[in-house]
Amino acid sequence: MKQFLFFLLALCIFSGTASAQFDLNAPVPVDPEVRTGVLDNGMTYYIRHNQEPKERASFYIIQNVGGILEDDSQDGLAHFLEHMAFNGTKHFPGKGVISSLEKHGIAFGRNINAYTAQDETVYNISNVPVAPNGLMDTCLLILHDWSNYLLLEEEEIDAERGVISEEWRTRRDAGFRTRNQMMPALLNNSKYGERDVIGELDVIKGFEYDELRRFYHDWYRTDLQAIAVVGDFDADEMEKKVIELFSKIPAVDNPKERYEVMVEPKAETTFKLALDKENPQSSVALYVRHQAEAAADKNHNTLKTNYMRSLIKSMISTRINELLQKGNPPFINGSVGFSDYPRTVSLMSINATAKENEEAKAFEAILTEVERVKRYGFTEGELERMKAQMQMGYENYYKQRDKISHDSYCKEIASLYLENVPMPGIEYEFKFAQAIIPAITTEELKAYFNSMYTQENRVIIVTGPEKEGVKHLNKAEALAIVEKVENNAAITAYVDEAVSSSLVEELPVEGKVVSERALPEFDAFEWTLNNNTKVVYRYANYNKNQVALSSYSKGGSSLYDVADLPSASMASDFIPAFGIGNYDAVALQKALTGKNAKVGFDISGLSESISGSSRTQDFETMMQLAYLHFEQPRFDEEAYNALMARYMAYVANMGDNPKKIMQDSISQIRSNYHERNLIFGTEYLEKVSFDRMEEIYKERISNAADFTFFIVGDIEKEVAKEMAAKYLGAISSNDERENWRDNNVNGPEGVTKKTIPVKLSEPKATVQIYYNGDLDYTPENRIGLSFISAVLRLRYTESIREKEGGTYGVGVNASTSHYPQSEGTVAIQFDCDPDRANDLIPLVYAEIDKLIKSGATIEDLDKTRKNILKSRAESKEQNNYWMSNIRSYYVNGINMTLAENYEDVVEGMSPKDIKKLAKKFFKKADKIEVVFVPAED
């Protein structure tokens, strides 16, 4: 006891001393590894050397410009301008930006992208190979052109109108429409509340060319731009290149003021009811609006405030989760949090997703938890646990500092430039966190919480379905609930119950390794344990201080009749809410305080598995959790009933959701309406049985000898061997071995075409096309089908998106499966104007016919080849590369780490190979074409 008290005293002294090292009111220094400067023309630059991923670099241009700066006649043109940056620049006319990069394996969408927001526009070229001579210079020149040399040709502008019109159409869902209703109320009818970034369709289709050019000239200028380049290069050389190239761009004469839009305060509470016919859920939210901290005022206190916000959010979340575990939960989900959006606003948000016609109950319940914090704050036990979790997170991040990606740094730089968000570097912030977090008190947190939960600038927003029989809160009722809770004298302080942290008291047997086999092709080892369990281990420290666990056992839900499928499939959703061993879910979270270890399970169609992850020092805890999942699973009927009530409420209005209707229709058609293909909804949940779920779980997650376990990560062999033997070797086993059962769930044969009307608020057609056919599970076929899908994406981007302006994008995905039959699937999907669907669908088939007749062009093949090889090289620097490949080898019998099964196949892929595979697959594959169209009223 004396030692423990001494430790606490020492910790307090250390925390006080460490805190004194930092002046909280002082500015935060910028990461010393970042080179930064401001050119004579006002442009800022940031350069940083980094090695994740190796031999790669990322290039960003960050514009302190967004939709909020548009005139009324320019509504949506900031976003339109972003698109035009890929449609012709001084040095890269036409589609030159994209084509120049894609031939080096830098894919549009994945590696080349941009976004526009209210206050900012950011372009990126990510994970560029540094080796090709002149490629980094090309990327710099593209950023240079984006800054000041867009061509903005009238033909290209007109072509892009169609693309953006289709993006506008694609985004018009219930969430978007609801947001447009609520934002004016939330942001007090300011310009932020009235505008959305994509703009209005009449402007997109009809603006004058000079309006776009005027916005470009007014706002895309050097004093509002920053260049960020991070990667595996010589920083001295890169800095010289940036200074030389970007200094040549002239500054704009007499620049317009880069103004900020303020949201005016409002003393009385605003109320808004925002309904939509397609919204499946009701929710009630109370927002408290504050003026955000000015960029110039951000300092060390900003970092501390972020810690405090995170602690508060986590502790309230834990309380809410506890509330949801028992009885009849008052809401489906609830949350309390803080955010800074838009730039000039700081929001406290209190939200509850309500059961149908129970918005009042949900609102009162979530406000009661807020009032409990307001009056009594948090307990010392709660705070210490959350501090431990937060410090553990920083420690793990610090140990992983060599794996921080180029793009992560670039995004930090963007926040630094745009809003002066502190970026001191992980070493500095780790030390700061070590000093500050332990010293944060419950009194500070309560004071901060109450400073945010004020009476002024409140906004209550009720959202939900516009549907007969569903009643929503009105303003008077909502305000009455607020008053009722604030005057409720019966609200008591939260009681925090302490728990033991010992997960496994005693093991029934002492497990041991009885044989070891080397796997030189993977630099791994296979151990057989005393209970005949197989464990495969490989050391990998690409991701330091991380260890992963996976497993595989044949069987899954395939072994059960139709009546049992809901109970089997929902087990992985319900059972984690029951806890494990002697701990319910709430107690388990407390018992794992300060540890980073988690284990879950899955029962899929053909198999079951236990998987998990941990820090190196928490590896034993992960092994204990794996053991408990087999030997001491927990089944809590009260928690089951509580979660089932929430699920039932969640699905109540899903049947009216167009996306759900489409998803279910496709699922049924693709399975040829097989009885085992059940639709998720109320009837499905009614078939779930608590007792049967328990029986199925114990049947599937049992008999360790029927499982093969895989351990990959930063854990020494002898430690992994000892812990695996101790815990996995103690799991019960027998001589029975199972296999999956083929229930012959197959799609329709031949060609299936359907047009399905769906009630939609916005006119839109959704086209979905599927090819499914026999295909041997070989490296050549698997990689070849990946080539085909990638080439089709390139072709459809050019023909359907760019040339026709028919859609925002065509999704193409290819997959292969080994069991129960070896087959391949190619799925193609896009949204479009209903009047154009019949014109665009033939273009899909035309590109497939070209592959069958001629194969792919050399240019498209080379783009795809380089992108695949680039991604492969990057993936090899991750622990998961070895986990997925070793596991796949045991399941499918093919070692995909061998060059002969991957790199050699990719390098050798020819137009003739694509032609041969396309002909073999598409000619014999079954085809499904479904077009969802707006239903007539």
Give a short synopsis of this structure.
The protein is α+β, with helices and mostly antiparallel strands and 937 residues long.
What is the CATH superfamily of the largest domain?
A: Metalloenzyme, LuxS/M16 peptidase-like
CATH class of the largest domain: Alpha Beta
The largest sheet, given as strand count, sense and whether it forms a barrel, is: 7 strands, mixed
CATH topology of the largest domain: Cytochrome Bc1 Complex, Chain A, domain 1
- How many individual β-strands? 23
Quote the average pLDDT. 96
Distance between the termini: 76 Å
Outline the low-pLDDT stretches. Answer: 1-18
> What is the name of the CATH architecture of the largest domain?
2-Layer Sandwich
Structural class: alpha+beta
In angstroms, what is the radius of gyration?
29 Å
Which descriptor suits the 3D outline? globular
Estimated share of beta-strand residues:
15-25%
Task: Tell me the number of structural domains.
Answer: 4
Give the helix level as a range of percent: 40-55%
Number of helices: 31
Sheet with the most strands: spatial strand order? 12-13-14-18-15-17-16
Outline the structure in words.
- The chain has 937 residues and is of the alpha+beta class.
- It has four domains: 34-246, Metalloenzyme, LuxS/M16 peptidase-like (Cytochrome Bc1 Complex, Chain A, domain 1); 270-401 and 417-486, 2-Layer Sandwich (Cytochrome Bc1 Complex, Chain A, domain 1); 513-656 and 664-701, Cytochrome Bc1 Complex, Chain A, domain 1 (2-Layer Sandwich); 751-934, Cytochrome Bc1 Complex, Chain A, domain 1 (2-Layer Sandwich).
- The protein is built from 31 helices and 23 strands.
- A hairpin with a 3-residue loop joins strand 16 (597-603) and strand 17 (607-615).
- The chain starts with a helix and ends with a strand.
